[in-house]
Amino acid sequence: MKNIKHSLYIVLLSAMVSILLPACATTPLTSTAGQLLLKEQGSFAIGGTVVKAPGIFDPIKHGAFNPANQSSAGQTLHGDHAYVFYQIPQNPRKLPLVFWHGYGQSAKTWETTPDGREGFQNIFLRRQFPVYLIDQPRRGRAGRSTKPMSISAAPDEQLWFGIFRLGVGKDFFPGVQFSKEPEAVNQFYRQMVPDTGPIDMEANTNAVSALFNKIGQGILVTHSHSGGQGWRTAIKNSNIKAIASYEPGSGFVFPEGQVPNAIEYLGGRLQAAGVPMAEFMQLTKIPIIIYYGDYIPNQPTQNPGQEQWRASLAMAKLWTDAVNKHGGDVTLIHLPDIGIKGNTHFPMSDLNNIEVADHLSDFLKDKNLD
């Protein structure tokens, strides 16, 4: 009887394995347990430069970590590179998404949201896109700069609360798609990081271009300050097959001789730049989609946090028309106009970020980029 029970157990176990193994083999990236199945992940530095001080390094005299004996003579500094973290899912799609953060931010922009939900990193990983997350040179985990800079410790968070269009002061906009939980606000403020050196657009675009040289063809996803840098990187590197830009704030480039007048706004002016026509035409060869969120006024206002985005959206419309006039394929989406309301300057981490991601997925599908 004991042997019969043992044999029956083996038969049942074998039957269960035979059922489960095919199911595991065809399990999609997202399982019922919410698991992510990865083929590969890792990180690396890309781009940058090496500075060497004149003289000769003396390992005896200068080797001890003693401030009295320290000398730069003959030593090197590897800096101004970007840091890249990547994840490649099982059965990946053909083109990866490369995510580039905005001003005062790092790759954290695309990771877990301030209120603890999945950001675009995981959302698109679950949709089987390889994802690459950048910390640009002199920011975050790429903080080794070859140029010195003083870092301020001045309190400024209510200023950014307004500029990032969560609301005014400490008061949220009505209907805003951002968690009002104190811990979410705490996490949001703590994701901000300082520059460790002067912002260098040439170093930044060279590093991201080097990334596309390394990984090959892909789709660049930018946010805010990286928007303008994204245009210039695409001019440099034809491996960028499309751009999705969330709220580009500056850096719009037009053909030389066709640069529009600066747009004045409360507290500043937004000026575009001119590039040779041959360079500008590179931007007409790829599909581009631009997104802006909510709470952007149509007319001048006394709120400087909203004013600069009024100027940015107005310039983006001029830029869209200019690229398309020369045969390009730019789509400009103001989210409230298509019924997606309440978004801040961070649509990728707002409460409705799945809906925002769905729109990008539809765009990629329409352009045969998925």
UniProtKB/TrEMBL annotation:
Gene Ontology molecular function terms on file: hydrolase activity
Organism in which the protein naturally occurs: Kaistella solincola
UniProt KW Cell division keyword: no
Entry keywords, A to Z: Hydrolase, Signal
Annotated InterPro entries: AB_hydrolase_fold, Carboxylesterase_BioH
Identification of the protein by name: Alpha/beta hydrolase
Organism phylogeny: Bacteria, Pseudomonadati, Bacteroidota, Flavobacteriia, Flavobacteriales
Signal peptide (from-to): 1-25
